[in-house]
Every structure is written in structure tokens, then in C-alpha cells.
TrEMBL record, chains A, B:
<dbReference type="InterPro" id="IPR039866">
    <property type="entry name" value="CPQ"/>
</dbReference>
<protein>
    <recommendedName>
        <fullName>Carboxypeptidase Q</fullName>
    </recommendedName>
</protein>
<keyword id="KW-0645">Protease</keyword>
<keyword id="KW-0732">Signal</keyword>
<keyword id="KW-0378">Hydrolase</keyword>
<keyword id="KW-0865">Zymogen</keyword>
<feature type="domain" description="Peptidase M28">
    <location>
        <begin position="259"/>
        <end position="443"/>
    </location>
</feature>
<keyword id="KW-0256">Endoplasmic reticulum</keyword>
<dbReference type="Pfam" id="PF04389">
    <property type="entry name" value="Peptidase_M28"/>
</dbReference>
<keyword id="KW-0121">Carboxypeptidase</keyword>
<keyword id="KW-0964">Secreted</keyword>
<keyword id="KW-0333">Golgi apparatus</keyword>
<comment type="subunit">
    <text>Homodimer. The monomeric form is inactive while the homodimer is active.</text>
</comment>
<keyword id="KW-0458">Lysosome</keyword>
<dbReference type="InterPro" id="IPR007484">
    <property type="entry name" value="Peptidase_M28"/>
</dbReference>
<keyword id="KW-0325">Glycoprotein</keyword>
<keyword id="KW-0482">Metalloprotease</keyword>
Length: 464, 464
């Protein structure tokens, strides 16, 4: 009943200002598509800087570049927020082969998982035991695993329409596979890349040894999907074959890095903060154009588009370019820690971290009342083919801000091609389409505009 | 009132069979995504055959290949429908340059428009007059146009969310530009490529001289978007520069070709025909993967998926692979002509000819009553993120079938990247994503299933 009343009240206020909202959103989309800056910024991040793994020279270059660009936008304030981040380095390229008989070998493409230990200098060579997931380990037991390389080969489920659901269904093999296999005496693990295509790119990503003591940690690598199919077929023909791999990666001490932050002060409620962001770090294999260069440049363009459209926000809009989402989430945690220590009032946070593809909508992590309000805006987005307003997750970096009353949201682009590129050498600039990227920026800007104008807080005050 | 009643009746029948429809559609999507054939067929069409311009050896190879593949599916009948098609040949590659002073030239990428005449052997060189569309010709008049090359430079409007709308807004420059400019004494035309990106690919496409006598026809070429920008800038600096181009294309006599047709006979209403199709011919510059290899292989997979799902259609489902959509529409016209001469009862026709990208929905050319019925199925498509059910055009090839009572539909994939590739050298296999293609095939199959099961005709009988 209360929800119904709120919806009704909102519907009335909507009708009165419909034309103004339509006009403002059209102006935002038109500007994004004709004079958007996101693509140029992404070109620089991707092609002049490249992969930006936390603690790398490139990550620092990205901090400086985006700070300079935000400075040039005439925001009210731009600053760096220091944060200590892990520094893991891949070292010389990895090398692997399947040995069907002594001297008869076939090379396969692998890459170390982020955070993995190196192999010994001479590499490791051992028999392989293929499993369809971590659950299989217990059934096999130490007897069948000890001294071997465990090969996790559960693929992403192609029948999931959302490829993120397919990813969720097998990423624990990558994240926890080494820690779990180590308990049964495995000496290394190889994980099928989280990729729905058959190709030659190994896909890296974060992994954790949990509480495994340092001396018991075993090296972990991803193998390309074609390599995984070859290995699996070879094992079916002869379970006694050997697999060899060598990797040279290393974990260094934490180093100082930064979240890059800029803001436009709100005219009426300066203490009510809306965050829009993506993560500035990326994996090292590609240039991180989709993950998450796209989210970074879209978020930057949100503030630029708001200013350029002449709209004067009532609330403070803050762009946050988070450091270290990929292998630590230190930036997201630090931002939330500082916000809480300063007792800042965050009312909304929006993250773009699902690729620079055609936007389809948003997912929201919020109350039913707030979601009902959001759904009231759906009609305004229809001309832009934005149709997906769902309850669900938002984004990793803004997650630590989560608090009762705060609305969290994530941009939801079309997901079909995302895992073709995710964490792999082919996450590169030429796979981002300019218009798709710009439509995402315009869609985010429109949501920020609507939240600023109607404010979730207003409803709460009405209720209060 | 009548519409409301129909909707209500349909809604009730929907509720009763919802679970079965949901199950059937899930089976269709699962099969398309795990054992779809569309991508393999496209691989062959694109990489073993390539561009399939009407009258070419490749077009004939495509006829034979698809006929063989349809034969292998165990359909009730597969046949070729003869049709005479135009044969236009590009000849040796085109060549063009901007001459800022005698001897100082910059090459620019061009291609002849389909159907254009050649230049003289030595090419043509002349001053250039830039216009923003055909409307400008009258203002300029013969005095300023005579003896010059007309340069049509109106770009696609980037603020149109549907890129097809942007295409509609300037394609008349390509289609009628030569005929119109010729009336004012122009000696050739250059058209900015119908492409929203800035790149180096010229995009060909059909053009017509209308009733221009043969001896008065002037050569017509497309220039890449980057080439167009360079030419425009150069003209601003010095309107007296020359443009040179040479092309060697030729129109031959019509040759015999074929529509490729296969069908599954309906169990209950074999005389009610539902057509699903795309066009087998393509332009010659790329391999025609998006335009319209994708539509061809999706349409073929519709019949395969229907059979593989175990569903026994009540009505006849016919796949038609139309010849010569690009430069004549002879196949579409022939199919309709034969259908009418045989007094065949077509109840539905669905075309896929907008690229192999993530499907978003369908557009329908039909009565309000039939559209209301279609909208009742919307909910069934939601799990597959198919959200766009609009009234509008369907497809060029099925257009000639149009008749009162016949429902025409077109698959509507995401359009953002389509004109990056359309009619250009980069319309190639690697730009088609397997999942996106398969989702399109499943979406089409699901619609065919629903039309077969509920039949627009049933409503008409109820009304009668």
C-alpha cells in the first residue's frame, strides 16, 4: 500500500516534468553521440598506456593521465586517494606442452593466474587428472591426485543467456582450485579459461590460496579453451600423458597507488553524494579496454556530459576511478573506509564494469520502494532501447559502500561477447565500438540526472 | 472492443499452455546454443565461397552448397526456383586521388557503386562540388555543377539510436545521386560511404540511373568516411582542386540463377505456408557474413531446430534463400509471382536481414489485431532478453508477398555495429559472434513455433 502510494505520487510528479526529462535526456544522448570524449580517452588509456595491473608503471601512468583529464574538465575538485595495493608481476611468458611420449610434445597456450606462485625454474612435469569442478576432488581423494597436476575443465554453460551467470557457474575453479587441489597433494593446477568461445587465448584472473601456508602453495595457470579440449581429448586416449608448464611470476611487497576522484558539488544538497565509477587497473595481457577502461571513461564522461548539458546538479556527483579491483579490491575498500570515517552521506553509487558493449539497462541492489521508483523511469529510457531494470548485483568496487538506504547500481551492457575478451590478450581497443561505448555513457548520465533530480532521499523524507 | 476481446481470449489460451511454450522455447534456445549449425554453415559460405554477387560463380556455389545442406536435413522437399538476375562485375580495383596541385596527389579509397557505369579508360579528372544532399543540386544549378564531379557528403546522423534510421536519412544520395547530378551536367559522382565510423573502407550498394538514357549515365563511386573528410577539408582550403577516379565495372546480360527453397509439410494445415528466409547473394567486397550470410544460415537452422526439437508443425514451414536482394530483388519478386500464380496461401513471412548481432526483437507489418496477438507472446521472450516488438518494416525479399491478412516480420538485432560492415570489405566472418548468431536463430525459431501453434488464421476464423 505504501509502495503503491509512493508510485502514485511519483507517477504524478513524473507527468508534470516528463517533457523536461525527455528533453534533458535527449540532449545527453545527442552530446554523447556527437561530441563524446569517452572513446578518445579510451584510445589513450589502451593504446598509449596499455594493460594497467596494480603496482605497475602503467597503472601509475593511468592515475596521472586520468587525474590530468579530470583537471581539464573544470570540476569543483579533483584529488588522489592513496591506497596500498598488491604488486604481482607475470615475468617472462609462460610455456607449456602436452607430452604424449618422451620427446613427442605439443605446445599449448597458458598464462599464470594472478597471484599464483612460480613453478621451479625447470618447470614442473607430471601426470594430469582431469576434473569437472572442485567437487570432484573429494571423490578422487589423495590417492589419485597426489603428485599430479589437476586439470579443471568445467566449461561455462552456453545455455545461460547471461554470460555472467555462466561465469559464476565455474569461476570457483579458478579462484579456489589451487588451494583445494593442494590439500590432496596436487603439485599444480591448470584451469580451462573462462571463455565461451573456442580459441587460443588463455584468460587470467584472480585466485587465492586461502590459508594455505606459503611453502604449500602450488602454481596455477589458465589454458586456452582449444588447449583444454586438446588436453582432455589426449587424456581420453591415454591417461598416462604428461603435462609440462613453467611460469616465472612473483609477488612483491605492496606499493602505494591511488583512487582518482573528481566531483561536482551539489547546489542544494552538497552533502548527498552520488558516486559513478569503474576501475582503473586491468589485467596485464591485453590493454584492458573492456575491463574496465570502458567503465572508467564512461564514468568520466558522465561528469563532463552533466556539465556540458547545462544541468546544475542538486547533489554532489563524484567520479571514482578505483584502483586494484582485479586482484585485491583495495581501492573499493579504501574508498568506503574513508567515506565511513568521514561520515559522508552516500545516497547512490553506480558502477560500469561489464564491458563497453551496447547498454541494455541496469541492475539495482536496493529496497523494493527504491526499485519501484527506478521502474517509474523505465519509459524515459525506451527511446534508447534501454529495457532491463532488474534487482541484482551492482559492482565490486562500490560493494564495500553498501549500507542501509544506499542504492547501488550496475550498468548492464549486452553480455554475449564479454567473455570472448575478459582478462585475455584480446581485450583490446579495436573490440570496443565507439557508439556502443557512448550509448553506455549517455545511459549512465541519464540515470545520474534522474537520481539527482528526484533523489531517493526525497521519498525517504516524505515517508519520515 | 474487438481487439480487447481477442486479447482476452488469447491471454486465456496463453495461460493454459504457458508451461508447454516455455519448455519448448527453452529446448529451442538450448539446442541452438549447444548444437547450432548456423555458425558452421556461415563459416563455409564466408570462408570457402566468399562474396556472392548475383550472377557470379560464388553465387552459384552458394546455391549448390545450401541446397545440399538443406537436402541433408531430411526436409519434406527441397528445390531450386529459377530466376533471371542482373550480372554486374566490378572488374579491376578502382583508383582515386585528390590532386591539390598538378603532380601533388593523395590517394583515397573508393569503390564503384553497384550498377554504375565505368569511367573512360583513362579515368576522369575534374573539379569537385560538395553538396549536403540531392536537395542542394537545384540551388546550385547547372552553372555550378556542369563538368564537375558532385561529392555527396551528408553523413549518417549519429544521434539516431536505430542506425537504420540514420541510413534511411542519407541513402538516397547513393541510390539516386548519379541520375540527379547527371541532369545538371555533372560528369561523375562520389558519395560518402554509409558508415557511422571514421575508417578507410568504402561501402558499395545499389544505385539506379532511373530513366537516364544510356549515353548520359555518369560513373558513381563511394568514398570511405575518412576519405570524405579529407576531400571536404581539402575543398574548404581550395575549391579548385581536382579529383581523379577510374573504375572498370560492367553490366552484362541477365543470367539464370535460383532461389533455394526447402520445406517441412504441415500436419494439419499443409496449405498454410509460413516463410522464413534471408538473401543468398551479397556484395562482392567482403564475404557477406552479416549481409546476409547470417540471415541465410539462421533461416536454415530454424527448420533444423524445429525438427530436432521434436515439434510437429501444423502448418508448412518453408525456408527461402532469396537470390539478388542487393541489386534487383529479382528473387523476392519471383517468389511472390510464383506463389500468386499457384494461389498459395501464405500466412506468415519472417526475414532476417539486419546482421548476425544479438537479437533484440522483431518488427511487424500487420494489422492491429495481429500485432496485439504478437504482443501477447512478449512475456515468453523475456528470459531471452528479447524486448522489442514494434510495428514497422519487415524485409525487402518478403515485401513482394505483401497481401491483406499476411503477417510480415523482420528480426531486429542490435544495430549499433551493422553499418561498420555493411557492403564493405570488412563484412567478414570474424565479425560475427557465434552466440549472437545462434540467439538470433533461436529467437526466429521460437516465433515460428508460436505462429504455427496459435496461427494468426485461427483468430481470423474466430472473427469470421
Amino acid at each position: 500500500m505504501r509502495i503503491t502510494l509512493l508510485i502514485t505520487l511519483f507517477a504524478i510528479s513524473s507527468i508534470f516534468s516528463q517533457t523536461e526529462d525527455e528533453r534533458q535526456m535527449k540532449a545527453i544522448y545527442d552530446m554523447a553521440l556527437t561530441e563524446g570524449k569517452a572513446y578518445d580517452w579510451l584510445n589513450y588509456l589502451s593504446n598509449q598506456i596499455g594493460g594497467r595491473l596494480s603496482g605497475s608503471v602503467q597503472a601509475q601512468q593511468a592515475v596521472e593521465y586520468t587525474q590530468n583529464q579530470l583537471d581539464s574538465l573544470g570540476l569543483d575538485r579533483v584529488w588522489l586517494q592513496p591506497v596500498m595495493v598488491p604488486k604481482w608481476v607475470r615475468g617472462t611468458p609462460e610455456f607449456a606442452y602436452i607430452e604424449t611420449k618422451p620427446g613427442l610434445t605439443t605446445n599449448v597456450p597458458i598464462c599464470a593466474l594472478g597471484g599464483s606462485v612460480a613453478t621451479p625454474d625447470v618447470g614442473i612435469k607430471a601426470n594430469v587428472i582431469e576434473v569437472n569442478g572442485i567437487e570432484d576432488l573429494e571423490k578422487l581423494g589423495s590417492e589419485k591426485i597426489k603428485g599430479k597436476i589437476v586439470f579443471y575443465n568445467r566449461p561455462m554453460d552456453p545455455t545461460e543467456i547471461s554470460t555472467f551467470s555462466a561465469y559464476s557457474g565455474c569461476v570457483n575453479q579458478r579462484y579456489s582450485g589451487a588451494a583445494e587441489a593442494g590439500k590432496y597433494g596436487a603439485i599444480g593446477i591448470i584451469v580451462r579459461s573462462m571463455n565461451l568461445r573456442l580459441d587460443d587465448y588463455p584468460h587470467t584472473g584472480s585466485m587465492s590460496y586461502g590459508d594455505t601456508p606459503v611453502q604449500n602453495r602450488i602454481p596455477a595457470a589458465a589454458i586456452s579453451t582449444k588447449g583444454a579440449d586438446l588436453l582432455s581429448t589426449t587424456l581420453q586416449l591415454n591417461p598416462e600423458i604428461n603435462f609440462y608448464f613453467k611460469q616465472n611470476c612473483k609477488q612483491f611487497d605492496d606499493v602505494e597507488s591511488y583512487n582518482v576522484i573528481g566531483e561536482i558539488k551539489g547546489s542544494t544538497y552538497p552533502n548527498e553524494i552520488m558516486v559513478v565509477g569503474g576501475h582503473l587497473d586491468s589485467w596485464d595481457l591485453g590493454d584492458g579496454s573492456h575491463d574496465d577502461g570502458a567503465g572508467v571513461v564512461q564514468s568520466m564522461d558522465v561528469l563532463r556530459l552533466i556539465k556540458a548539458s547545462g544541468y546544475q546538479p542538486q547533489r554532489t556527483i563524484r567520479v571514482v576511478l578505483f584502483m586494484n579491483e582485479e586482484n585485491g579490491l583495495r581501492g573499493g575498500n579504501k574508498y568506503a573506509e574513508v567515506a565511513k570515517s568521514k561520515n559522508e552521506n552516500h545516497v547512490f553509487a553506480l558502477e560500469s564494469d561489464a564491458g563497453g558493449f551496447t547498454p541494455r539497462g541496469f541492475s539495482f541492489d536496493c529496497s523494493d520502494e527504491d526499485f519501484a521508483q527506478v521502474e517509474g523511469w523505465k519509459k524515459l529510457f525506451e527511446p534508447y532501447l534501454i529495457h532491463m531494470f532488474i534487482k541484482g548485483g551492482s559492482g565490486a568496487d562500490i560493494g564495500p559502500l553498501k549500507d542501509e538506504g544506499l542504492v547501488l547500481a550496475g550498468l548492464r551492457p549486452d553480455s554475449q561477447r564479454y567473455f570472448d575478451h575478459h582478462h585475455a590478450e584480446n581485450d583490446t581497443f579495436e573490440h570496443v565500438n565507439k557508439r556502443e561505448l557512448e550509448l553506455g555513457a549517455a545511459t549512465m548520465t541519464s540515470l545520474i540526472y534522474l537520481v539527482d533530480k528526484y533523489g531517493f532521499g526525497v521519498q525517504k523524507k516524505v515517508k519520515g
